[in-house]
Amino acid sequence: MLYKENELKINNSLTGEKEVFTSILDGFVGLYVCGPTVYSDVHLGNCRTFISFDVIYRYLMHLGYKVRYVRNITDAGHLENDAEEGEDKIAKKARLEQLEPMEIVQRYTLDFHKVLQQFNNLPPSIEPTATGHIIEQIEMILDIIDNGFAYEANGSVYFDVEKYNESNNYGELSKRRIEDLVAGTRSLDGQEEKKSPLDFALWKNAKPEHIMKWPSPWGLGFPGWHLECSAMSTKYLGEKFDIHGGGMDLKFPHHECEIAQGTAATGEKPVNYWMHANMLTLNGKKMSKSTGNTLLPEELFSGNNEVLGRAYHPIVVRFFMMQAHYASVLDFSAEALNSSEKGFLRLMEAIQVLKEIKTSEKSSIDVEALIQKFYTAMNDDFNTPVLVAHLFDAAKYIQAVNSGKATISATDKERLTKELNAFVFDILGLAELSEEQEGNNESLETVMELVLQMRQQARENKDWTTADAIRDKLNEAKIVIKDDKEGATWKIQ
Ligand code: AMP
Ligand code: ZN
C-alpha cells in the first residue's frame, strides 16, 4: 500500500477547498463518473473528461486503493437541450434514422468504447445503463415522495425544490442562490403542473408518440436524466460514497439535482468529494456537439480535418491532454499538439536510453528526491502538468548521464526505471508507439503500395472476389482501405 494518510489532496467542488482525501472505508474508493448520452459520436471534448478521470482512477489504484469505478451509459431520459421538456435525444436520432432507439444506443456505445480504448483508457469496473435500472429509479422516487420532497402531477413526478430548500441548500454545489434562480426562470411555459419552475422531473408521463416508456406506479413514462445517476450510484456504491466526477458543464443542474435527490431519499448528502473536469475548447469556445464546434477523434487519428493537416496518434493526443491540469480549460490547436508530440517522443527516447545506460558508483543528483516530486505533483489534486515537467527533468538527466555529463548508480537506475515506467505507462496511461505507428515503417509503405496496386488491377478486371478478399484480409490485420476520387488510401486502425 503506497498511500499514506493525509497525503492526497483533492479540490472538492462542493466546498471549493483543496481537502485531504480520506476514503469512507480504509483502502477502498467508490468513484462514480457520469457517462455519455449515446446518441452521437463522442467528440474530443467528451474524451478529455473521460481521460481525466481515467488518470485519477489509475493513480488511486497505483496508491494501493481498491477502486470501484462506476460510469454509466445514459440510454434514455436525456431530453434535447438538457431541458425538462422535449424529445429524448436518443429517440430523436432513432426517428431521424428510422432505427430502433436501441440500435442507436448500441452503435454509439460501441463507438464510445472503441474511441476510449484507442486512447488507452481502462474500462470502468461497472458500466450500468439507465434502461437497465428502471426499477431502482422507481424505488428511489417512492422514497423521495415518502419523505415529502416530491409530488405527482398528471402521471409525472416532480422534485419539490422549495420544500427541499427549507431544510437544505439547493445550489450549494453550483454556488447559486435559490432567489436568483427563481428570478432568472421565466414563466412555466407549458409546465403548469409544476409547483415551481425550479422543480425538476423525477419521472415524466410519456405522451402517446413517445416510444421509450416503462410502466410505473404513475402510469407509462420514463425517468428523469438526473435521477438515473442517483439510482445507479446508490445501487453500486451505496447511499454515501467517496468521489463523484463529471464535466464542469454538468455541475448545474445535473449534479446539483443529484445531491438534492440523494439527500431527499436518505437524509444524508450522497457524496464526499465532487470533482469537475474542465472543458476542451476549440478556437476559444467550448467544444460542443450542439454548436458544431467539434473535432472527432477519428478526424484526428486520420488527419482528415482542416484544423490539423495530418494525423496524430491517440497516445500523443492523450499526452497533450496531460499537459494541462484536469480542472483548467485546455484549448486545442495543431501547434500545441505538435509540441506535445515532440515532448512525448523525447520522453520515450529517454526511457529507451535508460535501459542501456551505464551506471557509476554514485548518482550526481538526488534521484529519490526527483521521484518524490512525481508523487508530490499527483498528490496535489492530480497535477499532471507538474508531473510532466518533472518527467522532462528526468529525461534531461538521463540524456546527461548518457553523454557523460552526469552519473547514476545501479540502485538509482533500477529505482528510476521502475517509477518512470509506473508514472508514464501505468498512471498517465501512455504507451510506446511502434515504428509503423510513428509512420517510419518504409517497408510497410512499399508493401501496401504493391497490395493496393494488385487490388486496383483486380477491380479493373472486374475480379471482385480477389478485390474483396484483399480488403477483408487487410481488415483482419487492422488495416483499413478508403476509396475516394484520387484512389485508395490505407491506415492502421
Ligand atoms: P454528454 O454525453 O453530453 O452527457 O457528455 C459526456 C461528458 O463529456 C460529460 O461529462 C460532459 O461534461 C463532457 N463534455 C462535454 N463537452 C466537453 C468539452 N468540450 N470538454 C470537456 N468535457 C466535455
Ligand atoms: Zn450523471
TrEMBL record:
Required co-factors: Zn(2+)
Broadest EC class assigned to this enzyme: ligase
One GO molecular-function entry: ATP binding
Reaction catalysed by this enzyme: tRNA(Cys) + L-cysteine + ATP = L-cysteinyl-tRNA(Cys) + AMP + diphosphate
Motif ('HIGH' region): 36-46
Compartments, as annotated in UniProt: Cytoplasm
GO cellular component annotations of the record: cytosol
Chain span(s) of sequence motif 'KMSKS' region: 286-290
Cofactor binding mode and count: Binds 1 zinc ion per subunit.
Main location: cytoplasm
Domain Cysteinyl-tRNA synthetase class Ia DALR: 373-439
Its EC number(s): 6.1.1.16
The keyword Cell membrane is annotated on this UniProt entry: no
GO BP of this protein: cysteinyl-tRNA aminoacylation
Coiled coil start-end: none
Entry keyword annotation includes Membrane: no
Binding site for Zn(2+): 34, 229, 254, 258
Binding residue positions for ATP: 289
Keywords: Aminoacyl-tRNA synthetase, ATP-binding, Cytoplasm, Ligase, Metal-binding, Nucleotide-binding, Protein biosynthesis, Zinc
Subunit organization: Monomer.
Similarity annotation: Belongs to the class-I aminoacyl-tRNA synthetase family.
NCBIfam families in alphabetical order: cysS
Protein name: Cysteine--tRNA ligase
Source species: Brumimicrobium oceani
Gene coding for it: cysS
